[in-house]
Amino acid sequence: MNVTIYHNPACGTSRNTLEIIRHAGIEPDVIEYLKTPPSKEELAKMIAASGLSVREAIREKGTPYEELGLADPALSDDQLLDAMIATPILINRPLVVTDLGTRLCRPSELVLDILAPDAFTSAFVKEDGEAVLDAEGKRIV
């Protein structure tokens, strides 16, 4: 399975998502989007494929969202995408693209929806101790 994660190693959710993917036996293409942001077209395609609006894909917390005036409802999707490309910390993360779909994986276990369901055979626990998969690799609800 082909998997690409737009990753920020400083983000716990992003780290957990990456480790879930690796727990499935997949070594994904890891793109540190703060260093190598996607093109505007790639970002727009991922957002659309994930079922989100452009506004839903913007990260507000810990970013210059307010200072840049991005809360203004008059801003178009095109203007918001331009801001996200110019200031990549505004791209919410992690975005994951697989053969089964694209998701903004917040929380990290949303990545399970776009990985093969039979890929897991053992438990997985997030770095904060929260169990995601049981001893048989089944999702904990």
Automatic annotation (TrEMBL):
Signal peptide: none annotated. One of its GO terms (biological process) is response to arsenic-containing substance. Keywords: Arsenical resistance, Oxidoreductase. InterPro entries: Arsenate_reductase, Arsenate_reductase-like, Thioredoxin-like_sf. Pfam families: ArsC. Its EC number is 1.20.4.1. Belongs to the ArsC family. This is Arsenate reductase. It comes from Agrobacterium albertimagni AOL15.
